[in-house]
Amino acid sequence: MTTRRQFVQHSVASTIACAVPLVFAQTTSWPEAPVKIIVPFVAGNASDVLTRMVAERLQSRLGQTFIIENKVGAGGMIGMEAVRNSKPDGYTIASATIGTLSINQFLFKKMPHDPETDFVYASTIWENCNVFMVSPQHPAKNLQELIVWSRAQARGANIGSSAIGSSPYLAASLFKVRANIQATIVPFPGGAQSLTALIAGETDFAIDNIASALPLIRAGKVRAVAVTSDYRWPTLSDVPTTAESGVKDFVLISWGALVMPKGTPPAVLNKLSQSVQAVAADASMQQRFMDAGAKLVSSTPAQTHAFAASERIKWKEAVMLSGAKLDS
Prior knowledge:
By secondary structure, the protein is an alpha/beta fold. The protein folds into two domains: 4-127 and 254-322, D-Maltodextrin-Binding Protein, domain 2 (3-Layer(aba) Sandwich), CATH 3.40.190; 129-236, D-Maltodextrin-Binding Protein, domain 2 (3-Layer(aba) Sandwich), CATH 3.40.190.10. It is 44% helix and 19% strand. It has eleven helices and ten strands. Strands 1, 2, 3, 4, 5, 6, 7, 8, 9 and 10 form a ten-stranded mixed β-sheet that branches. Helix 4 (98-107) packs parallel to helix 11 (301-322) and helix 6 packs across helix 11.
């Protein structure tokens, strides 16, 4: 299986070989006015917090104000529509996510836009993973033991997750099938509620975002048994990946990316991408992101578009297996 890291390395090599001469041949004075980044989620949401950190550095680097505007609703589609309908001049950007670019089209029967063709992709900006957790008293010490334990339960296992349609919920749906276990997925409004239920013994194990879980893991209130990234997560380096735990093809990460409306000049797109890459090379920024529960990443426009497309394949399967629908 090609890991995300190998995919990016291969893409970097091919993109440098084919596209860099074009990138450097293009010039633009952008930005010459304030730039608006629309976050399609509430202020204080992880995506919002991480976007603000990137915007702060872009503002310093490019010498123009970067304004964050939260446009909330319909699983992020209201904010994405605002960007799609904006003038393609580089002055309105969407801070998109795995949900708005690679999952929503499978959860909603009717989409006002096509995430693949109605936007142009500049760069990824962050990623994090999900983590499997049990209570400290649970007999399973690793993911294989948890699978064996789950199969032995006559009633099946209860898996706690975030809300229906979220990446933890879909990850739990996919895990049931891949691990061949009987289980009921118990969705909660968010990670905090899911982990509270796990601690209280209301669920047998939980799958949720590492940013939500890390404080409780560090406090010893829950125990991590595996992470869903293709490498050991830096802040949980003693916790194996799902692949190391014997569950193959289960690399499921959450991520964010900057995209603009179709028709935005390539020179603007490339300049934004290169600026994000420069921000991502800053060690102090990398640490700030890790402290916030995410990894700071970057990519070229071609890599970003290809990555979002590859993600749609696995999440389409997860949505299909879950049966989740968010509209009629």
